[in-house]
Specification:
Strand content: 5-15%
Number of strands: 8
CATH topology of one domain: TIM Barrel
Number of helices: 13
Structural class: alpha/beta
Order of helices and strands: HHHHEHEHEHEHHEHEHEHEH
Helix content: 40-55%
Shape: globular
Radius of gyration: 19 Å
């Protein structure tokens, strides 16, 4: 993977985060509300100016044509093709699944996407349509997008989605509880939902647009990782701002440092507002520079998107033929 991205000039990766109190075991941190609060508020503050400057520098990077082709294919393989609208129908989901398996029917070399993400009541439709494809079926749960329901209801919804065949669950944290400082409550919910997932992977949505500060993004990231989230995810796509490069950078730092502390590999999903191939490549550069090349894999990084795939396909055609497709040659999701 490193050799494929050889044209990306590598900047020096920042030193790992210095954790408060020389923490060596997260079980110490989660043992009590006071310990959890002390750990989260003991995390180094995020230098907002420095973070935004670093992201701006990385955003100006260009890559050579061979690496761009690899990056476009990789971005396609990282897409969670998503439909989360009240007007969703089984027919729409089946069409989306067909596109997930063969994004460009005229070019069998274009890879399939990572997953199709739907509401719980449409999981069975997606499972049937994707049978044998190897594409994951993801379902939002836990009163998406607000998270405003009882834990009992959240767990029932999670179990129903898993029973219908979902192998990935995207949960939302209770932002009200988090912003009120009730960290133990948020942690307990994540742990309970993780248990309800069984063998399914859990993505924990932070809804960074509602967290207000980069420090909160860092705290919420560590809280989700401590609770057992397999991925931490920026946003639902229903709140603005959704995903941004600076918050993704902070989350990538968290999974990198969590891996160094615990030896456990977790992923990041950037979702909402990522619509162009140019944007996607910027995020991939960020992943490469902050977490490292080992995270350039769909098992460790995802894009939550509905319209991004179309622009990626147009750019792939441009790479191959030298001319753009017109947008009317791409299916509308």
């Amino acid at each position: 993977m490193n050799t494929t991205l050889a044209s990306l000039p590598i900047l020096e990766v920042p030193m790992s985060l210095v954790l408060p109190g020389e923490v060596s075991d997260l079980s110490e941190v989660t043992a009590s509300e006071s310990a959890l609060r002390g750990f989260l508020h003991g995390l180094p503050g995020v230098d907002q100016v420095g973070a935004e400057k670093r992201v701006a520098t990385l955003s100006t990077r260009s890559i050579k044509k061979a690496s761009k082709g690899f990056a476009l294919d990789l971005a396609i393989r990282m897409v969670d093709l998503t439909t989360l609208e009240g007007a969703d129908t089984p027919g729409k989901v089946r069409s989306l699944c067909a596109k997930a398996m063969r994004p460009d029917p005229g070019d069998p070399e274009v890879p399939a996407v990572a997953a199709v993400c739907v509401y719980p009541d449409l999981v069975a439709t997606a499972v049937d349509a994707l049978a044998g494809s190897g594409i994951h079926v993801a379902s939002v749960a836990t009163a998406f997008p607000s998270g405003r329901s009882s834990l009992e209801i959240k767990l029932i919804e999670t179990r129903d989605a898993v029973a219908a065949g979902a192998d990935e669950i995207d949960m939302v944290i209770d932002r009200g509880a988090f912003l009120s400082g009730r960290y133990g409550q948020v942690l307990d919910e994540i742990v309970a939902v993780k248990q309800a997932c069984g063998a399914a992977h859990l993505k924990v949505i932070l809804e960074t647009g509602e967290l207000a500060t980069y420090d909160n993004v860092r705290r919420a990231s560590w809280l989700a990782l401590a609770g057992g989230g397999d991925f931490i995810k920026t946003s639902t796509g229903k709140v603005s701002p959704a995903s941004t490069l600076p918050v993704t950078m902070i989350m990538l730092e968290a999974v990198r440092d969590f891996a160094q502390l615990t030896g456990e590999i977790r992923g990041v999903k950037s979702a909402g507002g990522i619509r162009t191939a140019k944007d996607a490549v910027r995020y991939l550069v960020l992943v490469h520079e902050i977490a490292g090349a080992d995270w350039l894999h769909p098992d460790r990084y995802r894009f939550g998107a509905s319209s991004l795939l179309n622009d990626l396909l147009m750019q792939v055609r441009k790479q191959a033929s030298g001319t753009y497709w017109s947008s009317d040659r791409i299916t509308i999701d």
